[in-house]
């Protein structure tokens, strides 16, 4: 979005909120235009206009940059699911597939939701889900999921709301500092994916081939059964 675009949108906001004292100061309005031009330079003007219109329709007060970028997030990243909606999807999946879920969570749920369920463990979540049938406390499955998913969602939301150029600069600074654990986190997830692929390869017709790939000498010597 250009500064000219920003000026046009700020003019709409000024008109929509005529009683807002700050807009009676010309210098304040100019500063708002400059701020919007900077903070929305990575976004197409029509999208910002949509966000402005939605805010005007739903709020009695002028929008902050963060409020508009949050609306833009809804428009541009529909795959980032709010916690309450995410739980509905997980709850529906628990009811529909039951304890023995042999499907791929990454195919059944949005990526971040699937990762949260994966970190808890499907069987663990199912045990909490059915626990109240045996006298346990109801709702523990929801509590466990929300505690895991909500901070993941908030981190992803904050990153996606941040202007792209600013994110690039932050990442560059972070990359120049000694690694304090992010690489280890990535390594652990990579190890998990490799192990998942290995277990998946053990099922069906290619069990022997997978075992041979894992330890061909042991298979040849008969130390590992292919049945």
Tell me the number of structural domains. Answer: 2
Strand fraction: under 5%
The SSE string, one letter per element, is HHHHHHHHHHHHH
Q: List segments where confidence is low: pLDDT < 50 over at least 5 consecutive residues.
A: none
Distance between the termini: 63 Å
Q: Number of DSSP strands?
A: 0
Residue share in helices? Answer: over 70%
Mean pLDDT: 86
Tell me the number of helical segments per DSSP (H or I, 4 or more residues long): 13
SS content category? mainly alpha
Write down the Rg.
25 Å
Quick structural gist:
The chain is an all-alpha fold and about 230 residues long.
3D structure, described in words:
With 227 residues, the protein is mostly helical. It folds into 2 domains: 3-76; 83-173, no CATH class. Helix content is 71%, strand content 0%. The protein has helices at 3-16, 26-39, 45-58, 65-76, 83-97, 105-108, 111-120, 122-131, 140-161, 164-176, 182-201, 207-214, 216-220. The model has no long low-confidence stretch (mean pLDDT 86).
């Amino acid at each position: 979005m250009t500064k000219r675009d920003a000026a046009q949108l700020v003019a709409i906001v000024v008109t929509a909120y005529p009683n807002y004292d700050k807009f009676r100061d010309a210098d304040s309005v100019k500063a708002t235009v400059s701020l919007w031009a900077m903070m929305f330079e990575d976004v197409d003007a029509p999208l910002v206009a949509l966000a402005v219109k939605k805010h005007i329709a739903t709020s009695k007060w002028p929008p902050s940059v963060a409020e508009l970028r949050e609306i833009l997030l809804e428009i541009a990243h529909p795959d980032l699911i709010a916690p309450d909606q995410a739980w509905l999807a997980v709850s529906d999946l628990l009811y529909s597939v039951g304890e023995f879920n042999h499907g791929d969570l990454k195919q059944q749920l949005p990526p971040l939701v699937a990762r949260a369920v994966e970190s808890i463990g499907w069987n663990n979540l199912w045990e909490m889900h059915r626990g109240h049938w045996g006298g346990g406390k109801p709702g523990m499955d929801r509590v466990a999921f929300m505690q895991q998913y909500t901070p993941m969602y908030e981190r992803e939301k904050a990153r996606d709301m941040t202007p792209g150029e600013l994110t690039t600069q932050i990442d560059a600074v972070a990359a120049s500092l000694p690694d304090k654990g992010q690489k280890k986190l990535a390594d652990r997830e990579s190890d998990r994916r490799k192990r998942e692929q290995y277990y998946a390869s053990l099922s069906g017709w290619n069990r022997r081939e997978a075992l041979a790939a894992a330890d061909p000498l042991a298979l040849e010597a008969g130390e590992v059964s292919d049945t």
